[in-house]
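hey so u asked for the seq, here:
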Amino acid sequence: MDVFRSAILQPRPPESFALQLVQQVIKPQKQTKLAQDENQLLENILRTLLQELVSSAVQSGEQIMQYGQSIDDGGSTQGLIPRLLDIVLYLCEKEHIEGGMIFQLLEDLTEMSTMRNCKDIFGYIESKQDVLGKLELFARGKLVMLRTCNQLLRRLSKANDVVFCGRILMFLAHFFPLSERSAVNIKGVFNTSNETKYEKDPPDGISIDFNFYKTFWSLQEHFCNPASLTLAPTKWQKFMTSLMVVLSTFEAQPLSDEDGDANNLEEEAANFSIKYLTSSKLMGLELKDSSFRRHVLVQCLILFDYLKAPGKSEKDMPSESMKEEIMSCEERVKKLLEMTPPKGSDFLNKIEHILEREKNWVWWKRDGCPAFEKQPIEKKVIQDGAKKRRLKWRLGNKELSQLWKWADQNPNALTDPQRVRTPAITEYWKPLADDMDPSAGIEAEYHHKNNRVYCWKGLRFSARQDLDGFSRFTDHGIEGVVPLELLPPDVRSKYQAKPNDRSKRAKKEEAKGASHQSEENQIATPASEIDEGIKADLEASGTPMDTDATAATGSMSQGGSPTADEHQKQSSDTDGQEAAGQSEPDADVEAGMVDGEAEMEADTEVDLDAVG
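ran it, structure tokens below
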């Protein structure tokens, strides 16, 4: 310990003697890095030395960070404690000792110091922020640093030490990465302990309406915990009644440009207080203060923005009547902000921009705070004169080659029946059915029915698989196409056909079917008559054909050859048959029978000649 005490008195930089100092005190097994037990021994020595230095500074009456500071011709030197911290920080940065040792010393130092000295200690921490934030140190000491800052915030007064609290919060925001979950209020818990106390009984000689005074300050109870408004309807009605009174008062007493210029915001920032001054005697002056009005109106916008934020559970979502009241009140608040000088419209635009960006943070937290930092791409320096080699890809480019490698057996992947398939109607319309469920609390602007491509594909699927649902599109629009079994009972009743409508529709279909059947019968009657006529002709013409065949067989069986007369008769018979076959289908049955008899007589003559 004496070796360290004498070393911190040296004005030389730590890198010139720090490692030799540790080797002299600890005598480690390795020359450049300490083992676990050696780190623990060194930490105990340093914590004991730090405690002695703080005790000596308190006894001398000097500030801790200035204790042991000397002034010479070259200027002032560092105090003993900052000098000791610099040596330890250098050893941690070079990984000669355990990286979390510097954070442990800083935590001990803040616990042993008063709040006045803690400001100087925190100034040292801010000056070394870049070194403390390096990856090799941050991973070892981030939890210790977070615990140290939280302990400081608990010890500070939120009303009197506003600037110091802000410095700590700004340091944490820069020290931790943007996606660090420990710095985010994941559950969205409200600080309900931040109560605004005001007078309950009217004092003597008050010049304002004390009922308005109580109504005005009672709004802070609801601003403190907005989630309670959706759980109890009576609270919401009480809040809206009080808010209407306050907004009406602001509208009845507009501020002029002179009132806005009288309140210099730069001078007000120097005397800013985080808590309101709730004395009833100041109520009249506060109503004329433009910045005071802005604070209250911005609180209203923040509360409305929280209630409208999507993604909450069903019990936390506002009802339809509440949404309408929120919209009307929000318009009144924005008009009042725009009317409040100075530069009311510019101030309103900035507030709207901040609230819009806040929605992105809300969604990010509800998605589980995914990391969105991307590592920088290393740029490779190409030497002068070297030709850039062009990569050759098997399938022509990088994307196609990677796509080919994604599947182990590409032929099977390409022929997989699940690769391209038409989804079932119930599967496809399930998202829209969830949107139509009032209990889901999904706002209309986020419904799937606003997606044109989704609706177009769904209509094509319904036209192929569900004609009954497709027919409801004419009466109910795209929501009527959704299968009824997917809808809750209260919603399903809107799209089900009534019994009277069904009976009327059935009667219409029966009437259409009867008329259609009569038309078919009328068309079928002449066709049957034609078929009977054709059948009779075929029967009449079938006899001579058989007779000719018999005669020809008989003549051939006798072994004789036909004579010239027989040839003439056969040719005439053939011509007669062709003439009979060319008769029109609509000829009378009697005419067909007469022709058949004549042909039969001619055939008989032919047979007789053949026999003779």
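Confidence is low (pLDDT under 50) at residues 523-612. The first strand starts at residue 71 and ends at 72.
lmk if thats what u needed
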